[in-house]
Amino acid sequence: MVQSLEIACAKEDNPQLRTQWPECFTESDDSDYYSLAYSFMASPKLKRVFGISLEFLRKRGQMRQGVPVVLLQMVEFLDQNGLLQRELFCASGLEARRNELKKSLNSVEFKSFCSDDVHAVASLLILFLRELPYGLIPCWSATQLLRVYTKTKGKDLDLKHAKKVLDSFEPEIYNVLCLLIHFLSRLAAQSHVNHMTSKDLSEVFGPCIFHVPDSRIKPVEQQLCIYLTQQLIDNVTFLLPNTYPPKQTNATLFTDDCPPSSSPASLNVDAAKRMLLSDLGFSRLSVIW
């Protein structure tokens, strides 16, 4: 599905699209609207990379090693310059520089990051994930993962079952998740220096990785997703073992998965959160309860 935000971005980036797009053409035209939108968004002429779905970034040739080039650039830069930075994702006051970098990356002007851009790039990484349409793990995929968590009424997390769910994710989602979680695992390994434990990182990235729809129990669902994110980080070698070669699309051959780790861990969950989730009813995520 093409979101209206993506279409607006496409029209902003390409003046020709603004003249070609009928002014009276709206979402109410349904299939014709999305058919035209789809062809526009897949056009390699469009350069914008923020706020664009992984599917369209792939169709435009803006991916390398199965992940968006812009994401790879940011992670590689932070890997080289940010692992030992204290509270990497907690710095403030860098909005102007972050927006400048975003504008550059959305065009053909970008050259490279400067050595003192570490905190700005860290903020930019979070922004990229937040602006993904439907999030990195959309609610329908998050529902599958949360079902594993709730099957035992929150007593523990069956990591073997969770791995099967993760393996079923679309290649674009799986590859980005692998890249991101392995990076966060390396950050957490240096927590004695950078003061960013897996718990700290999960609180920052949980709401960015999982798309939680608005509801009256959204805060509870976000906490569940934060717990799952921490489990991904703490058990990355078991849950997301193969980082390279990347998981392939249906158009190419698949590579064999790496063998799983030996012993899955369990997750003890706050009973109050489980009771609150049960008492308040359901939303698009908690309907799996």
UniProtKB/TrEMBL annotation:
InterPro entries reported for this sequence: FAM13, Rho_GTPase_activation_prot, RhoGAP_dom
Q: Which Pfam family would be a valid example here?
A: RhoGAP
Whose protein is this, by species?
A: Cirrhinus molitorella
This protein's name: Rho-GAP domain-containing protein
Q: Which domain of life is it from?
A: Eukaryota
Record PROSITE patterns:
RHOGAP
Extract the SUPFAM superfamilies matched here: GTPase activation domain, GAP
Ranges for the Rho-GAP domain?
52-240
